[in-house]
Amino acid sequence: MALVLCIQHWRHYLLGKAFTVYTDHKSLKHFLQQRITSPDQQCWLAKLLGYQFEVKYKPGLENKAADALSRCHGDVELQTLVSYPTWLGGKILLAEVAQDPYIKDLIAEVQSQPDAKPGFTVKQGMLFYQDRLVISPHSPSIPLLLEEFHSTPMGGHSGFLRTYRRMAENIYWVGMSKRVRDFVRACDICQRQKYAATTPSGLLQPLPVPNAIWEDLNIHERDCQTTWNPSFNHQ
Questions:
Q1: pLDDT at 232
Q2: Full-prediction pTM beyond 0.70?
Q3: What domains does the chain contain, in order, with CATH numbers?
Q4: How far apart are CA 99 and CA 79, in angstroms?
């Protein structure tokens, strides 16, 4: 079947020309000479009519080009070919966590009373919560992390849930969910470029009949901005 599909895929190059097919399936070498006994073989043979080709057997160990995409290489070989993004501030973050008094107090509490903080562990002097590095909620690296996981090309300006999940795989701090949600909501690019996923608003409705003059003076419509001054509202 693979032989038939391959020849049909390249038929615009193969029709009217003699060519050679190399395969590690030895029985295919005699496919055109053997006795056809099944309807599937008859169908395959009918699709190969009109092509001039010869099938030659090539052992799998010698047919390396065909197996290049299907063989699983080791991590060492892949690392020489594939580049991975590296956050340059990782060492700075670890040094900051090691000197943070808030984290030091938590480490001392976890070491003295392990049952008081379920899910927290200390590894190599670092505090982890469910295998995620714990940082202070007042860490100066948090804005950089939010920028890295959301606003960079790797972050892709994803929504709250995807941004939070990517960060939560390796990092944890108290109030992390709210901080990520507020950052995503305040992203100017997301507000300007993304369409609203909610139900469209209805048509404008007329104002009710006022009870006195100058009750309704003006209605101010605004676009989606990151900040809004309440003093701009007029009535």
A1: 46
A2: no
A3: 2-67 (no CATH), 90-193 (1.10.340)
A4: 33
